[in-house]
Hints:
seven-stranded mixed β-sheet, Erv_C, transmembrane helix, transmembrane
Amino acid sequence: MEVDLKRxxxxxxxxxxxxxxxxxxxxxxxxxxxxxxxxxDLDTNIWKLRLNSDGHIIGTEYLSxxxxxxxxxxxxxxxxxxxxxSDHKIExxxxxxxxxxxxxxxxxxxxxxxxxxxxxILDVQRVAGNFHISVHGLNIFVAQMIFEGSSHVNVSHIIxxxxxxxxxxxxxxxxxGTMRILRGASGSxxxxxxxxxxxxxxxxxxxxxxxxxxxxxxxxxINEFDRKWPAVxxxxxLSPITVTIREERRSFLHFITRLCAVLGGTFALTGMLxxxx
Length: 277
């Protein structure tokens, strides 16, 4: 182990999760680091797979940062002439129509028991931060009309894979295979992750830079009067210590010593058996 001296590198986050009770149209992925910067950008590849009630894939969609889109939509209004009432009415009518279509589509998906599988790679800065998967990308009024309250948002999820870099022989990711299904009241899940930078050195001298991590889980329920909306949060921090794992081959002398020990033990045991017989 030694002090981690890396600077200015990105941290890859591999995500593969299933939300069996939420359609893909309402799910959004957002990542924020300590500086407050959104890291879900053009370098990020996140895909959503629509699932039917049996878990079979029925559609695919590329997911950019829905939160950024929402911010852009609000910022767009600041540069307009608000005295143009006719244009404003047209936009309101368009928004109402789009929102109405969105609500009908999502309600139909919920009635059909649709789910969503989210997978891909987030490239974030190598500093502490968090990413979360939720319905925060929706307009608050649209979300209220779809779910009729935050307590009805079911964030049950299955984590198929969550890792921070490529896998090396013998690695164990503690969240792989995690299943959290809500039967009663909804709430938010928080996973506090401590990332340990790791280097795996093969016998061939090839070095694989990656990360391993430990995790602590916390669930906070939400009641009907709570203004917060349920989400699945992953809050991560990096350890200042790097762990180096090396593959080493035993020496030939060690092999000869063990071979002699095995042969000697075999000779002694057969001698004892012969005496007993």
